Amino acid sequence: MADRRQSRRLTVGLVVVSAAIGIAVWLTASRLNHLGRQLKDAETRASNVEKQLARYSEEVTDAIQRAEVAKKREAEAESAASAAEQDRAAAQLRADQAQEAAHEARQRAMTAHLRAEAAAAAEQQTRSELETIRKRREDELNRMQEALNRIAPTRRTPAGMVMELADDSFHFDFDKASLRPENREVLSRIAGVLLASEGYRLFVYGHTDDVGTREYNQNLSERRAQTIRDYLVQAGIPSEIITTQGFGKSSPAVKATSSDARAKNRRVELGIVDTIINYQGQVPPPKG
Q1: For labeling, which of 61, 208, 210, 237 is most exposed (least CB within 10 Å)?
Q2: Cβ–Cβ < 8 Å for 283, 157
Q3: Domain map (residue ranges) of the chain
Q4: How far is the C-alpha of 201 from the C-alpha of 240, rounded, in Å?
Q5: The model's pTM
Q6: Domain 150-274: which CATH number of 3.20.20.390, 3.30.450.20, 3.30.1330.60, 1.10.1040.10
Q7: Is-contact 187 231, C-beta < 8 A?
Q8: DSSP assignment letter at 172
């Protein structure tokens, strides 16, 4: 009996111990399951936190990039603003310079206009004065021609006048360059008229007839012109205003070989060139 009771107590004890162990195991498994779930939740949260951190990191990186872009754009904007200010300042300077240049141009135009008006007035006055001088000079030349024409045939030319010393008024002997007494009287009268005048140059042209060689007559015509010049200089005409030239037999007054024609061709011409209003150079001798 005692053994049965002890066996029952042992069996009950084993049952109790087994139950306690089962409960402990169950509690432990439950706790482990709970801890597993907590760990899984923690891992999930950790994963979510990592993802959030990654997103935050991307956002920070993006924000930094945007900040850098914004800073770059701000720098570019400041540079553009500075360039724009420089351009504005340069444009203002150019505008000021253009305005100043326009003002100077207006001043120059006004000055030029005033000068043009003054020049026009001066030109008009000069024209009037020149016309007065020309008219007075024409009157003087007309009086000179009239006086010379009383001595020998004298005609007006564009540059002055030409006086012919030939035939009845003046005569060279055949093959001679010396002056006859009556020639001296004529030249003295001519010198008197010229000495009473001013503003002229005198050209003395010598001519011969057709008798003799070209070289001989050329020399003879030059000697005749020189003879006239020397006499006029002795009479008081300034030597520096007299020019001589010989034409030999190349320019006859009369193209004939008679005695009368040859006498007319042995002549001297005086070219009187006005140096005041119409100086045009040497007066060409007339062609025969």
Answers
A1: 61
A2: yes
A3: 150-274
A4: 9
A5: 0.54
A6: 3.30.1330.60
A7: yes
A8: P
